[in-house]
Design brief:
By secondary structure, this protein is an all-alpha fold. Helices cover 62% and strands 1% of the residues.
Length: 470
């Protein structure tokens, strides 16, 4: 087996050229910008990730039986906790935080497992989910120093498969929204609903095609606004959540009840945490190259500690598991603004939005068919990101192609055949009903079997690329 590349203790020893700067020796990552530019650049980061932060609670809330008002509360809490997690990453303290322009928010990886956990639990659904996230976050925090040494077991063939499954697993949610969201409601699947979703989809695609810069980055947000305006005269909007929302409010700790701890739920969320840590490691490595401050083992450990601590604290304020937002890394590369304090300003804006429930409740005005049209692009982009990662996974080797085939096949079972595991014990269904969890486990085990155990020394299969880019 080929020797795994090691992370240097000193980032300067890594053979990646450092960025030049004109700030008297201060690295561009540590620069502070004028207040107006700091605010507008931070706002741009918020705009690029806003839809991604509020989408998971919008999916999970109704799926576990929350009302529109409670779902709006959950969205506000997610904005607030995303802001806290982003500040942990950018500013940091002690050995916590990558101290890079690194944006954190609610992870899509946890959506399907959380729905599986909350299924049939009634009022206990959210407390059980939160209890599992707390345990997974704490375990992840203590595992962070060792995780960098395990990166070689998570090559692109594993991460690409998992990211693809995340996107594909979420697409049925977008299709359900496009039909109206409630299969028992009148008009579900009507031509009116599907036409509204199609119009929104076309608007988003046209904006992505013809807009540039900042406006292109927020094309999904603009598409939601445009779709909602079109839906207004058609009577498809609902302002109940806005009417019942306060202008100022704090996400009351454990608003949905004290956390509950179930073993099966904890196992499922620990697998999600493993996925999140893998994604964040990939993003830290990629971002370090982009900003000219290559990430070493210390940086990765700090970043993962911030991720996991943010995840463990999020349920206290009614938020979900946090991880890196890859789209914001693309924004850093595009704008060339590398200051971590700009992203910290974005984190501050997220906290303010979370303290203004009426701002979060306005998302509840968006008709579900409009969300469905935009969701097809949003969730499809996640799947496309996974496919892009798989493109660098040495698929010409038969073993890697087999790993992807088996992992995707097994991971798609809950989507293609929802009742496949109906005869299994309920505790196992929490994990098995999540294609992301099962696909991740299968990909890891098959990668170990084919690319590590008994692999020939020096072979391509024995030396998976430890730098994960997606």
């Amino acid at each position: 087996m080929a020797q795994a590349p090691r992370f240097r203790k000193d980032a300067d020893a890594v053979a990646v050229p450092q960025a030049s700067d004109d700030s008297g020796g201060k690295h561009p990552v540590d620069e502070t910008l004028p207040p107006l530019k700091m605010f507008t650049s931070g706002l741009q980061h918020v705009a690029a990730m806003y839809a991604g932060v509020v989408a998971p609670p919008m999916i999970v809330g109704p799926a576990v039986g929350l009302s529109a008002t409670e779902t709006a509360f959950l969205m506000g809490a997610s904005l607030f906790t995303a802001g806290l997690a982003t500040l942990l990453q950018t500013l940091g303290f002690w050995k916590i935080g990558a101290k890079l322009p690194f944006v954190n928010g609610v992870s899509f990886a946890g959506v399907t497992p959380m729905i599986a956990i909350g299924k049939g639990e009634g009022d206990n659904a959210i407390p059980i989910i939160f209890g599992a996230i707390i345990v997974a976050g704490i375990l992840g925090f203590f595992a962070a120093p060792y995780f960098g040494k395990l990166v070689r077991f998570f090559p692109p063939v594993v991460t690409g498969t998992v990211i693809t499954l995340i996107g594909v697993s979420l697409l049925p949610v977008a299709f359900n929204w496009s039909q109206g969201g409630n299969s028992h409601a009148a008009g579900y699947g009507s031509m009116k609903n599907i036409a509204m979703a199609a119009v929104t989809l076309v608007i988003v695609l046209l904006m992505r095609k013809f807009l540039r810069g900042f406006l292109q980055q927020i094309s999904i947000l603009l598409g939601l606004v445009a779709g909602t305006l079109i839906a207004l005269p058609l009577g498809m909007t609902n302002f109940d959540a806005v009417k019942n929302a306060d202008f100022i409010g704090f996400p009351t700790p454990f608003h949905f009840g004290a956390p509950q701890f179930q073993v099966a739920a904890i196992i499922s969320m620990c697998i999600v945490m493993l996925v999140c840590m893998t994604e964040s490691t990939a993003d830290i490595l990629a971002l370090g190259k982009i900003v000219g401050r290559p990430a070493d083992a210390k940086t990765i450990e700090g970043g993962l500690r911030a991720d996991t601590l943010g995840s463990a604290l999020s349920p206290l304020f009614n938020g979900f598991m946090c991880s890196a937002f890859a789209q914001n890394i693309g924004l850093v590369a595009m704008t060339k603004v590398r200051s971590r304090f700009v992203v910290a300003a974005g984190g501050g804006i997220l906290i303010l939005l979370g303290l203004c429930p009426i701002a979060a409740s306005f998302i509840g005005v968006v008709p579900l068919p409009v969300l469905g049209g935009a969701g097809i692009v949003l969730f499809g982009s996640v799947a496309a990101s996974g496919i892009q990662t798989l493109a660098g996974a040495a698929m010409e080797t038969g073993e890697n192609a087999l790993i992807v085939a088996a992992s995707l096949g097994i991971g798609l079972i809950p989507i293609a055949a929802p009742g496949f595991y109906h005869a299994f014990p309920e505790d196992l269904l929490v994990v098995l009903d999540s294609g992301i969890s099962t696909g991740c486990v299968v990909a890891i085990l098959l990668n170990l079997a084919f690319n590590h155990l008994g692999a020939k020394k020096g072979s391509a299969a024995a030396a998976p690329d430890p730098v994960l880019v997606h």
